[in-house]
Every structure is written in C-alpha cells, then in structure tokens.
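4.2 Preliminary Data

To establish feasibility before requesting continued support, the project team ran the inverse folding procedure on a target of 372 residues. The structure was first converted into the token representation described in Section 3, and no sequence information of any kind was made available to the design step. The complete token record follows.
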C-alpha cells in the first residue's frame, strides 16, 4: 500500500469550522493496458511518448496535469462514533452535502481511530486536472460519477484536546472520469472507475494541506471505457486497463512540477506499484448518477373516497412518505437561497416561505426513521 509524503512542517492546531478549500494541485496517472488493446495502441506512433514497458506490461502514463482551483468541502469537527458521524453532517458551503460515515466504501488501515477521536468529513467538490489534452475530472466536473467522499482524522486519538487536532491523516474514495485526447487518428477516449480509487495521506497539518496523496488500494483499480467506440468494436463498460499509480499533489502549483515528480519517484521507489488484479472483470455495467428531480406524470383522477389525510412529512419531496439524502440536500440548498422553495414545498411546514434550521432537523429525523 502506498502512503503519502507530507511536504509541510509539523504543526498542531485546531480543525476549523465547516467550509470550502480552493487550492491548486498537480496529478499524474499510470495505467497498465489490458492485453486486448496492446497491439492497437502500440501500432499508433502518437501514443509512443506515453508508453513504456515495466514488469512485462504495457504502461500508459499521462503527462503532469494541473488544476488551479481544486475545491474540497469539509464539515465542522465531530467525534468518531458519535451520532453525527453515523447520521451525517453537512460538509462544504458552496454546494453542501450530507456526509455519513457509512458512505466510505474503501478505507485505509489508519481510517478508524478510537471513538471520540476528532475528525472532519470531506468531499471533492471540483477537480479538473488538465495537460496536453489529457483530463482527470471528479466532483461537479464529472456530475454523472458518484460523489468522492473522504475523511480527516486527528493523530492525537481521543485526547479530547482540540488544539492537537493537527497533524491528522486523510483519505478520499475517488470516482473519476479520465479523458484521453484523440491521438494519431484514434478517437478521444473516456475512462471511468466503478470501484473507488483510494488516495491517502498519513499526515496533513492544515486545510488546505500541501501534500502528495497517492494510491492506497491493496491492488490496482480497473478503468473501463465510458462510451462505445464502434471503429474498434469497443463497448461502454469494456475493460481498458488497471490503474497502478495515481499521484495527486494538493497545494502544488505549476512551478512545483520538479518537486512533485521527485516526491512521486521517492514514493514509488519506497513502496513500489500496486499489484495487478489477476482476473479483473472484463465488462461491467456503468451506472450514471442522476439528479433526484421527480417528474410529474398525468394519472387518472380516482373516485373520491373518505380517507384520513396523513400529516405532512417534512422533507418528503416526491410523496413517497420517506426522506432521502438527495431530498435533504435540496432542503439545505433552499435554506441557503441556492434553490427555489418550489423545488420542495414540504420543507416549509409553517408556510413561512423559508426553510428553517428546525425544519431541516425534523427532515433529518424523518430520514433516519419513518414519516409520521
């Protein structure tokens, strides 16, 4: 397993309140190409600068990519194992999301400290690394991919001393869209992962940090074609290859390329590359994320019969007598004046034409239990 190399000075400080961090970042990826596509790619000279043979496998390596405004949303500090940790807390202020501990699909070995340890829930709001026509996108730059959630946890354990929140470890479960430009007559290629890519750092000292996050899974993560390419007989969901290295230098600028490359090389020499999966799934069904926006459909008018009208269910936007995380997000956006009240009138229980904190709390309660 790869770990991150901290480039900042050791600093002890308290986790700040909920907010958003906008920071530059550098990134690079390496994919071992599936044998089915080796011959086609090697026959195209335009791919040559990005190809190498390592360990008897054809490696496809991107140039260094840059994003000037990587944006990370984070929650207020909370305690591991608390009701907030389990039920979820709002994270970020630009586009708030309710993040629960159960959303972390893949965790590094350091992800669970003792109950009571101070932590922060995080997610990638925007990532758009670019260079030489290559792109890596996540968050609102890849809106059809699942949310990339993460966590920061204090290395002080359950000390109860907030001024020792930093240094801390950090990780993200990342879902990306990788865009490869058209090269040498080949069409452009879009690739995605369906299993989360775990990136991690074992020590950060601030928000935003200056640190190299690296691939932390126990084995390589498969990448699949996101769209059909009829000229090559490729179908959406076919395996392209396995991601063995994914370095992401948060806080690194374009002037820091040499330092970023040196840190990547040091990490690879120290830890090695992730082992390939022996039998990766050759074809998967890729499920896109969709907005939870109910579309009304005409229905026949039923014959009126005496019924007991159930009490309103605060937060139930689609009349299902339940409240989903997506509906909670709609309510938060209405409360922040980032969405119209008409998007879900059921949040306004007192007909005040606004959504209050009390109404959001009642909606969270309905999401955790049953509507009255």
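Position-by-position output of the design step:
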């Amino acid at each position: 397993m790869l770990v991150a190399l901290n480039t900042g000075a050791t600093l002890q400080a308290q986790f700040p309140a909920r907010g958003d961090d906008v920071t530059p970042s550098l990134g690079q990826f390496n994919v071992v190409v599936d044998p089915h596509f080796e011959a086609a790619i090697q026959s195209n000279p335009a791919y040559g600068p990005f190809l190498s043979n390592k360990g008897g496998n054809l490696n496809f390596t991107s140039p260094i990519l840059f994003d000037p405004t990587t944006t990370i949303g984070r929650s207020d500090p909370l305690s591991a194992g608390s009701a907030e940790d389990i039920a979820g807390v709002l994270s970020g202020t630009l586009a708030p999301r309710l993040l629960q501990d159960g959303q972390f699909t893949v965790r590094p070995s350091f992800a669970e400290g003792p109950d009571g340890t101070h932590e922060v829930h995080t997610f990638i709001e925007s990532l758009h690394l670019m260079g030489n026509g290559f792109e890596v996108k996540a968050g609102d730059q890849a809106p059809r991919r699942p949310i990339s959630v993460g966590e920061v946890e204090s290395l002080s354990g359950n000390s109860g001393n907030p001024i020792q929140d930093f240094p801390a470890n950090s990780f993200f479960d990342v879902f990306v869209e990788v865009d490869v430009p058209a090269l040498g007559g080949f069409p452009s290629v879009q690739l995605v992962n369906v299993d989360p890519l775990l990136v991690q750092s074992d020590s950060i000292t601030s928000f935003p940090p200056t640190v190299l996050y690296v691939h932390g899974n126990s084995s390589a993560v498969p990448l699949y074609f996101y769209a059909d390419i009829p000229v090559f007989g490729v179908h959406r969901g076919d395996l392209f290859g396995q991601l063995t290295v994914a370095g992401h230098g948060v806080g690194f600028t374009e002037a820091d390329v040499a330092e970023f490359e040196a840190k990547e090389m040091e990490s690879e020499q120290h830890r090695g590359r992730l082992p390939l999966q022996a039998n990766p799934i050759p074809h998967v069904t890729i499920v896109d994320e969709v907005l939870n926006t109910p579309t009304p459909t005409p229905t026949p008018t039923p014959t009126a019969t005496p019924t007991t009208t159930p009490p309103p269910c605060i937060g139930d936007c689609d009349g299902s007598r339940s409240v989903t995380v997506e509906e909670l997000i709609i309510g938060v956006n209405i409360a922040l004046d980032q969405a119209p009240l008409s998007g879900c009138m059921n949040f306004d229980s007192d007909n005040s034409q606004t959504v209050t904190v009390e109404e959001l709390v009642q909606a969270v309660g309905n999401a955790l239990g049953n509507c009255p």
